[in-house]
């Protein structure tokens, strides 16, 4: 595996990020430790989480994922070997949301405490906050970088217009610039990113760390009928992919995976890694067996013909 630079930062990551949304949800602390050990033992170093993970689980309040990651780094004493990304802005309670300076200062302290660290490598705006001026948000990040609590910043779920405006304001007022973008992007969901964001990413040297890289598991090939949706707690999200286009993509994945003696998940991730504007797709697993797909994807080099087969099967125009 070769490391890749995140935007114009000094952060170098291996080509897959682990998505921490499963911690405290489909993986308890013991299982999470096992998976994180396996992930880093395989040579990976990039973990992405968020303060709000996993508040959607009954009985959770948010912060569970950060707490697990923090406990793991503390017990393994490996903070200096990890590139750690988390996010701020998603609703955590009635007065705990958004990107105001006051809230960011409060939220970062909560994240640092849960993560058991004194700095965050990549701090990301999780969702846009139209009620807070962009300049105020970037000024808050500037202060945190000055204090050494944050190294670099990134954005997720911003519109193309707001992302562009943020980059322009950063330049105009000499404030920190977003170095990364975290959009939804995979073999099935291509149009939104390719049509609206990819040019912005390339023009501004941003690093893309896309989520739903396996389309909630659909691109693993294990969901091929409505009956299959019961195989996982996350299966419900796959229903929209069970259509003619989805089956065409699965057929292409089946064909290409045979050529490389690899699972469909590895091929779907390798296709993303091969795209010039993608730095590191975000993927999650809930077992050590599934980690093999990530390891294979990171070292797989698809040839031009096979990339073309996948491009054609998943074409959106």
UniProtKB/TrEMBL annotation:
Family matches, as Pfam families: Aldo_ket_red
Source species, domain of life: Bacteria
CDD domains registered for this protein in UniProt: AKR_AKR9C1
SUPFAM superfamilies named in the record: NAD(P)-linked oxidoreductase
Coiled-coil zones: none
Chain ranges of the NADP-dependent oxidoreductase domain: 15-314
Name by which UniProt lists this protein: Aldo/keto reductase
């Amino acid at each position: 595996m070769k490391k890749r630079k995140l935007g114009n930062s000094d952060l170098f990551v291996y080509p897959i990020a682990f998505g921490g949304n499963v911690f405290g949800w489909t993986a308890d602390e013991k299982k999470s430790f096992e998976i994180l050990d396996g992930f880093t033992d395989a040579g990976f170093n990039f973990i992405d989480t968020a303060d709000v993970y996993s508040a959607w689980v009954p009985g959770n309040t948010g912060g569970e994922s950060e707490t697990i990651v923090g406990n793991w780094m503390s017990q393994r004493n490996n903070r200096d070997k990890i590139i750690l990304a988390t996010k701020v802005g998603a609703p955590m309670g009635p007065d705990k949301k958004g990107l105001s300076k006051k809230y960011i200062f409060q939220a970062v302290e909560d994240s640092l405490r849960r993560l058991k660290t004194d700095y965050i490598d990549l701090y990301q705006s999780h969702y846009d906050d139209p009620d807070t001026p962009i300049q105020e948000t970037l000024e808050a990040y500037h202060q945190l970088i000055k204090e050494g609590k944050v190294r670099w910043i990134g954005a997720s779920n911003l519109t193309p217009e707001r992302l562009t405006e943020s980059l322009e304001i950063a330049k105009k007022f000499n404030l920190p610039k977003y170095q990364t973008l975290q959009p939804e992007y995979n073999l099935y969901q291509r149009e939104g990113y390719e049509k609206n964001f990819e040019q912005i990413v390339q023009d501004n040297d941003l690093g893309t760390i896309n989520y739903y890289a396996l389309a909630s598991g659909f691109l693993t090939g294990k969901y091929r009928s409505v009956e299959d949706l019961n195989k996982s707690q996350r299966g419900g999200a796959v229903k929209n992919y069970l259509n003619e286009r989805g089956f065409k993509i699965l057929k292409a994945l089946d064909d290409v995976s045979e050529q490389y003696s690899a699972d469909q998940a590895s091929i779907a991730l390798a296709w993303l890694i091969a795209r010039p504007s993608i730095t590191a797709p975000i993927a999650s697993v809930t077992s050590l067996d599934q980690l093999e797909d990530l390891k294979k994807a990171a070292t797989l080099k698809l040839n031009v013909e096979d990339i073309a087969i996948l491009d054609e099967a998943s074409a959106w125009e």
